[in-house]
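Quick check before the chapter quiz. The format below is the same one you will see on the exam, so make sure you can read both the input and the output lines.
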Amino acid sequence: MTRTKRLDPSVFHLPVERMREGYYSDKYFVRARELLLADGHRPRVTMQVFAKTHAFLGGMDESVAILKLCAVEWKDLVVHALFDGDEVEPWETVMLIEGPYDAFAHLETLYLGVIARRTKVGTNTRRVVEAARPKEVMFFPARHDHWLVQTGDGYAAHVAGAIGVSTDAQASWWGSEGVGTVPHALIAAYGGDTVRATRKFADHMPESVRLITLVDFENDSVGTSLACARALGTRLYGVRLDTSETMVDRSVIPQMGSAKPTGVTPQLVHNVRDALDREGFSGVKIVVSGGFDVEKIRRFEEAGVPVDAYGVGSSLFTGRYDFTADVVLVEGKPCAKAGRSYRPNPRLERVP
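Here is the expected output.
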């Protein structure tokens, strides 16, 4: 019995013909396939894909789609694989591909790259989600990388537990849409008036859109939060603190001590929360962003800082999560390079 339903291959909009011809593949794989075809040599091999580090898998459904759509004949292959979101250990086999080597030799670069990229995003996201739990994590790194990676990255973050992504492309594979806040640029477009920009947002966006506004434009997060709450009432879902790492918010200046005062600090969050609560706006949520990673989120949670959600960006693209593929069986018999051997994994499930 499968644990979950895999995404349909059509979701990924793959450039199938280009992939089949080896356009995106390391040239030596393309030439190896050409040589086998020219020689009429079609050994049936078992290719073993394994993780190099502890991780939470991503890109498995996408890799299966590449094999289904871009192998010479999918019916010639037998594939067993783990699922997106599965936790894996170093050296654990995540996928086995059995079939004539020439049928899929040209696809190794593609499926390894997909798994590596999506696993990096999924693993980083899962770690911040675990650090923030039960608080929400919003996936906000789209501006830190090329637009072409958005769709798969967003899905990897979704599987890892992010409650929202910032672009429609990132949300497309599960049929959702991007989320966000009133941005600094819109506030600037209304002359730096955060209340006016927030009111305009409320006037022109449907009620179903959560109204969260940035409140650091004038470096007065307490004053701006209160002004927006008074003006918008229950329409205001939350405020977002995003003070620059080079600045000290106005409310924090009189309280400066030994702790680092710049950026979004625990003291700043407490100041905003206390001010909102005093005026009866306890229902207004506080979202924080700007330089948040696993360590900073852990510090906030351990200190009991009254944050409701974290917006996390570039830290979700850090690190390396490499995968390797090796032929380990040829015609059912052991045949692998020194240091590698066939390692079956009972957790793998047959891909129909």
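If your answer matched, good. The chain has two domains: 9-120+319-350, 134-317.
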